[in-house]
Specification:
This protein is mainly β and 67 residues long. It has a single domain, classed as SH3 type barrels, CATH 2.30.30.
């Protein structure tokens, strides 16, 4: 089972994604592809809607499943 296949079983759950010297993204795992994942994160501004970010699998150090 590959990393992408394992992570795909957690779509819709809350995750923290840690990667390359940046603060982690915390949000809801939306989709998983063989080369990237998408996570919906809350914007840092109070009235802004959530943002969807894409992260390449090769840049991910680890993913923590929250709930």
């Amino acid at each position: 089972m590959s990393f992408a296949e394992l992570l795909a079983t957690f779509v819709g759950r809350s995750v923290e994604v840690f990667f390359a010297e940046n603060p982690p993204y915390m949000g809801t795992l939306e989709s998983v592809d063989a080369s990237m994942i998408t996570v919906q994160i809350n914007n840092t501004y109070y009235y802004s809607p959530p943002i969807t970010v894409s992260i390449l699998n090769s840049n991910i150090q680890y993913v923590r499943i929250i709930a």
